[in-house]
Design a protein that fits this description.
There is one protein chain. By secondary structure, the protein is mainly beta. Among the domains are: 317 residues, YVTN repeat-like/Quinoprotein amine dehydrogenase (Methylamine Dehydrogenase, Chain H), CATH 2.130.10.10; 85 residues, Thrombin, subunit H (Beta Barrel), CATH 2.40.10.480. The protein is 1% helix and 54% strand. It contains 1 helix and 55 strands. The strands form 14 sheets. Strands 3, 4, 5, 6 and 7 form a 5-stranded antiparallel beta sheet that branches. A 4-stranded antiparallel beta sheet has the order 1-55-54-53, with no helix packed on it. A 4-stranded antiparallel beta sheet has the order 2-29-28-27. The two termini are 42 Å apart.
């Protein structure tokens, strides 16, 4: 381990410059992405210990909140921006809370819940306590409840698996009239819809019938629609002057004229599993529908055009079974929720919020040209013909160049054939170039002229197949070199009778080798240390000398993963350990932060550790939810930032000085494979088959 006052505890050169005035990072927004990129309004919320069965959006004390009914019978309220519960969960019902609604009584906001126990309850969200006693009368589970105004009086309308609809006075808790009959199946959906000056309630049931009820009269306002099939969810809206029903119908979505029953359009097709949630919303005077499905997507539909708006909202690890359309800060949004195991108690749930206006406003944006056809694992920055560019490579074997400002692809992809496991941008003889490490038979290094779009050279590294390889560029004694990691075959034992030519871990040693980028010759002996699989490499300057830093897995010491540093200028072949932990390292990066050299490492257990090499001390230890897959660090807006991406597609940013989250989590569609943070604050992220550029929105903190 590196000890304090070791040769690494000081940096040569002038003292760190005075930090620029600090600025608050209020948000990160996507400048562009190579594929569909939907960004949640806030970080995803893990609802631990209770899958989301019902949800409603409210504003409490100026905070945008989600009111959640979970599968374990609890009522919970979440601050969406903060990602925290407003207060402790309340046990509301015996069994699932199937429905949540809001009601205003005498100017006070109230929450109404209905559950599997057949009861309705009214709650004060400011205290978390019930108001009055339960509303009882249903003999089956309450599946839906809505608030309406009838002749100037507030009323609640509920529906149940007992095939009835009931009307209640929320002040007294007493029913208004008897049960409303008419359905032959469980009545699972209720929606409020105005017809002229009448506020009616529309019901949907398992008998395939949709009925419009005149609440004041307690009778149908129009002839029911029959033969509607299996109605999994229901919403209503107005399309070209006609009041229409939007229903989930298996994996499809159907639109019908609510009065005449005629179908509107051919149906909306896109989901690949049952549609469990439907909501309607009007954006800029145009009707849309939002749908959630067990296929773990939410989709937005233009009902006049009969088509999906852009790509699906993804990033879920759960089936979506609850939606609530609400306005936050003047923007129409949808809160979506579900459970990790659909319909089972005792499991975790998830909440995601999407800005629907943003999706509509950007629907006409031209798609970017051809994205990668397989995972993108490596990214770097370069300048080609005066244009700032991003260079990417990955599983499809191509190297692609993107304009940093617009996202337009520059030139045609460079075809390397085999998958690219490492990539770096370099300058050779004044030319912008890239060096790539390929997973072919020889694990070849290839050098590309990015301006001309041609391959300059290639040479083998001899790394064994089956190992995760890493690459970084270093300058050593005036020569531009490449460091690669991998398994290299040892000399066989004299008594080894194994004639198998296949790869054998016992005959291989994990090493780092240096290569002259111009000649392809290996420089010196391999760097060793018995550190297991070297999965990540980076470099940093200390005392005017180049140091190489590696992250390892399957360490041969008594622990699992290590962060190791070599002084390349000092000529030592064995590295010194910065850290040795009992969890595998997955990613390593280095940068000057606040004028001081830092190393950041991400681990398989979701943790991130940062070291200040001037003191050899750990500067920060941060925690996450899922295995870390990429890290970055640097100065942005006058503050040092640490960025980490994980397997679940989350990108988190921390303030290095305080160790706190800067703006919460940014969510992308797919595991985060690589990150690059530039001094101008742009964050380039590779995830799944795509690459995106995120830019910070800065505001003075005064």
């Amino acid at each position: 381990m590196i000890e304090p006052h070791s040769p690494y505890d000081a940096v040569s050169g002038p003292a760190a410059a005075t930090a620029a005035p600090r600025a608050d990072l209020s948000a990160w927004r996507p400048a562009w992405a190579s594929g569909p990129h939907r960004v949640p309004r806030w970080d995803a919320i893990r609802v631990r210990g209770g899958g989301v069965a019902a949800v409603a959006g409210v504003v409490l004390d100026g905070r945008s909140c989600a009111v959640v009914g979970d599968v374990d019978g609890r009522l919970r309220i979440w601050d969406l921006a903060g990602g925290r519960e407003v207060r402790k969960p309340v046990k509301a019902h015996r069994g699932v809370v199937y429905t949540v609604a809001t009601l205003v009584l005498d100017g006070e906001l109230r929450i109404v819940t209905g559950g599997a126990d057949g009861l309705l309850k009214i709650w004060d969200p400011s205290t978390g306590k019930s108001v009055g006693g339960p509303l009882s009368g249903h003999s089956g589970a309450v599946r839906a409840v809505v608030a309406v105004t009838v002749d100037g009086h507030e009323r609640l309308v509920s529906s149940s698996e007992d095939r009835t609809v009931r009307v209640w006075d929320p002040r007294t808790g007493q029913p208004v009239g008897g049960p409303v009959l008419g359905h032959e199946g469980q009545v699972r959906q209720l929606v409020v819809q105005r017809f002229g000056d009448r506020e009616c309630v529309v019901s949907g049931a398992t008998d395939g019938m949709i009925t419009v009820w005149d609440v004041a009269a307690g009778a149908p306002a129009f002839a029911p629609l029959t033969g509607c099939g299996w109605i999994s969810e229901l919403a209503t809206t107005v399309i070209d002057g006609r009041v229409c029903a939007v229903t989930g119908d298996g994996i499809g979505v159907r639109v019908r004229d609510l009065i005449g029953g005629e179908p509107v359009g051919e149906g909306l097709v896109g989901h690949r599993a049952i549609v469990d949630a439907v909501a309607a919303v009007t954006i800029l005077g145009r009707p849309y529908a939002v749908t959630g499905s067990r296929d773990q997507t939410v989709r937005l539909w233009d009902l006049e055009a009969g088509e999906q708006v852009g790509a699906a909202f993804t990033g879920y690890r759960v089936g979506v079974c609850a939606l609530s359309v609400v306005e936050f800060d003047g923007r129409p949004c949808v809160i979506s929720g579900g459970a990790f195991v659909y319909g089972y108690s005792g499991v975790d749930g998830e909440l995601l919020v999407w800005d629907l206006a943003d999706a509509v406003e950007n629907r006409s944006a031209a798609p970017l040209p051809s994205r990668h056809e397989d995972w993108v694992g490596s990214i770097d920055r370069t300048v080609v013909a005066g244009r700032d560019c991003v260079v990417t490579a990955g599983g499809d074997g191509t190297i692609r160049l993107w304009d940093l400002e617009s996202g337009a692809q520059v030139g045609t992809p460079l075809a390397g054939g085999a998958s690219v496991y490492g990539l770096a941008a370099v300058t050779l003889d004044g030319r912008p170039c890239a060096v790539s490490l390929h997973h072919d038979r020889e694990h070849s290094l290839r050098v590309w002229d990015l301006a001309q779009g041609t391959e300059i050279s290639r040479f083998p590294t001899g790394d064994q197949a089956g190992q995760r390889l890493a690459l970084t560029v270093v300058e050593l004694d005036g020569r531009l070199c490449v460091a690669t990691s991998g398994a290299h075959e040892d000399e066989p034992d004299d008594d080894d009778d194994d004639d198998d030519d296949d790869y054998d871990h016992d005959d291989c040693a994990e090493t780092v080798r240096l290569w002259d980028l111009r000649t392809g010759e290996q420089i010196g002996a391999p760097l060793t240390g018995g550190y297991g699989a070297i999965v990540a490499l980076t470099t940093i300057q200390l005392h005017g000398r180049t140091h190489l830093i590696a992250g390892t897995a399957d360490n041969e010491c008594e622990t699992t993963g290590a962060v190791v540093i070599w002084d390349l200028g000092g000529g030592g072949l064995r590295g010194a350990e910065i850290s040795c932990e009992d969890v595998e390292v997955a990613a390593v990066e280095s940068a000057m932060v606040g004028g001081r050299p830092h190393v950041v490492a991400g681990y398989e257990d979701g943790s991130v550790q940062v070291w200040d090499l001037t003191t050899a001390a750990r500067a920060a230890e941060l925690t996450g939810q899922e295995p870390i897959t990429a890290v970055a660090c640097g100065d942005v807006g006058g503050r040092g930032l640490v960025v980490a991406g994980d397997e679940g597609g989350r990108i988190r940013m921390w303030d290095l000085a305080s160790g706190r989250d800067v703006v919460g989590t940014h969510r992308v569609q797919g595991p985060v494979n690589a990150l690059s943070l530039s001094p101008d604050g742009r964050l380039v992220a590779a995830f799944g088959n795509d690459v995106a550029v995120l830019v910070p929105e800065l505001g003075s903190d005064g």
